[in-house]
Every structure is written in structure tokens, then in C-alpha cells.
Amino acid sequence: MIKIVLSKSSFYMIDDCFINWDKGTGGYNTPPIIGCVISDKDGKNIATFEIFHNALNHFILGEESKNNSFNSDLVPMYTSAIELLSEELHIDNLPYIDIKGSNIKLHIIFNFEHFTVTLFLHPSVDFEKLEKVTRNYLSNLFEEFNDEFQGSKEISSKEFIYFLERVGWNWLLNLNYEYVSF
Asked: Which homologous superfamily is 32-181 in?
């Protein structure tokens, strides 16, 4: 069993909040919601928050994470391209798309006016259980910090991005707790 440290403040997630994930090399414990990337519609990464530091790298690459790293800045470019492709194909009102593998599931939400949100999930997560609370949280976040999000493309917004990542980390903890409480 892997003990996962969530922050430098020695904050640990309780074992009940993890789902057994067998990658063929033994069991790992994976949280239902691993991380989140918020990007603008042009494919620029605004913020990435993870359940613990380098969680995406750890759960996407597994053992390979020791020698390689996952570049989360590529995710918004690909999700932006998927959204543009859906527009070219005249797929109207595409609210989201799921990409599911054996080790991870991406839930990409397109229906925010200025932003695309990519959630990294355990492959067995039923996102419908979290859909309403997630959309409400993100809608409120985008509305409450509208000016800051619009200014996030500027270099001077690093303080807001850091704040957003801390708030997002806390949200992920709560979302994981809610999911396992269903």
C-alpha cells in the first residue's frame, strides 16, 4: 500500500477515500478525482490542481514517472483541438467528452463560455454522481473570480493562479470525500 502525502503540512487522505487500482503490477490506491486542468478556449493552461503534488505524473505514468514526466500544459491544446473539431463537424452543444483508459479517465467539460475543464479521474468513477456539484462549483468559481480569470493570461496574475491552485486542491479533497460518501 502506498501512503500518499498531500502537502508539505503532513495532511493525509484517509484510506477510505481511495479506490483499489490494479495496473498488473500490484495494487495502487488511487483517489476517485486525481486532478483538474482549467484552460481557456484557445488551449492555454490557466491552472492545474492535483490531489497531491505530482499526482497526475504518478497516476498517469506509474512506475515510469521516476524517469519521465507528464506535461499537463499539453492537455489544454488537445482539448481545444477536440472542441474545434466538433465545431467543424457541426456537432452542436457538445457539453463534455469522456476518454477512458485502463489507468485513467478524462472528463472534459466544454460548456463554460470562456473555459474548458479537464478532470482526471479513476477509470471506474461514475461522473454523473458528481456532475451537479462540480458544475455548480465551477460556475460559481468562474463567476466570482471573473475579472481575475480574464486577467490570468497576464504574467502578473501568478498570485491568483497560486490562490486558485490552493482553492482547487481543497475542492478536490472535498469532492473525493463526497464521491466516496455516495
From this structure: Dynein light chain 2a, cytoplasmic (3.30.450.30)
